[in-house]
Write a structure and sequence with these properties.
TIM Barrel; alpha/beta; 2 domains; 19 helices; Rossmann fold; seven-stranded mixed beta sheet
Amino acid sequence: MKRVLLINSNTETAPYPVAPLGIALVASSLKSRNEVEIFDFTFNSTDSLISFIKEFKPDYIGIGLRNIDNVTMRNCKWYLEEIRNNIINPVKENFRIPLIIGGSGFSIAPHQIFEYFDVDYGIVGEAEEIFPKLLLEIDSGEGKVELANVITKWGYKVNTSEQNHKPLVLPKANIDELIDFEPYINKGNYPVQTKRGCTHKCIYCSYPNIEGTKYRLRPVEDIVDEIEEAQRRMPDITFEFVDSTFNSPVKHAINICREIIKRKLNVKLRTMGVNPGDVAEELIVVMKQAGFTQIDCTPDSASALMIKKYRKNFSKNKLIQCAEIIKRHDMPVMWFFMLGGPGETEDTIMETFEFIDNNISEKDMVHITEGIRVIPNTELYDIAIDEGVISKEMSVIDPLFYVSPTIGKENLTFILDREIKKRNNVINSVDSEPPAELVQAALKYREENRVEEPMFRSLLTMKNQLKKTECK
């Protein structure tokens, strides 16, 4: 039996740490034939990693890459150099163990990242099936590995289309039993995936390239079984659905909620992706009944022109209807907008801010991203080249951001700084981490008043109070 060490290379903890679901699924797929351990670098150091490797003595090391950077144009954090310096190079300097890299971040630009890290193997796309096959091929010792979607130093053959159209059957992965989950209980959430794939055609997005352009749905019973079993182990944990869009297709999302209601599970739920085009009255009603305490809604723009430019699946009127439904049921929301896309002007920006003023509750947070991260193999990448915003010679693993020449970076920054200052509940992604004194005030407020609202609502409450005090 071979020993396999899987490393979660993600060190980002803002706004909260994200438990490594992908690594846990791969670990579960390997356990029948291998002895597997996960090293969570999020809360560890290079020295502790080297010590762990010396003690565990793995035959193979897999490294999961979640993100290339933090997709923030100003104050951008580029993670690849940090990972190379703190994980990959120290391991190569101390051991002669085959290194295998994969993950969603790696799959965005696999060939370039493979060369940058100079590792032995790279897995493009979903690794639950490929990783065990790769280890068998290496162990056979018959020569070159020539598996589809595996990159090696002598070549690569990438064909994710086959795996991205298979039915979605995930190995059982109790992530809290595979890693030290204590750091995630208070600040993070328990991640749950309900499907893979995306049928939307947003011009900037990498999800269809990574997961496929068709939905592959997990059985509703399997999803709710996972939630029910995890809650028995951790009664107070919040579950987060980590699909790119939880409510697409909407019937699947409604069925998940109805199964949770049917089982009378007293759970706290949230989701990172609610698409305005698939928001209906029934959906929000059953989400609240199921236990959703917060959702993230991602229209990206409220300008009729920009909604079309981004190739969203909804109209301006549909977006307004979505906001009305959410507000009517007092569903706590974090709204997300990306400003600076193709054809953006001051008028289209102001149209988005008018929507915020007229349709979003002051109790809810609005998150503005300034500029858009340019990802290879997307329509935005081609637009950026055609407009001269970037060139083909630029490395796609470097942080490349698009701001339309019709608005310009300096003007975009000026307008956003001006407008965000006028609104208490709007923040720029550059300033997404609240001041420590505000966090402490919010925590004290929550404890004294025993509130169970989302943390961002408490932060806004305290921000309002502090603002009123300063004005006196």
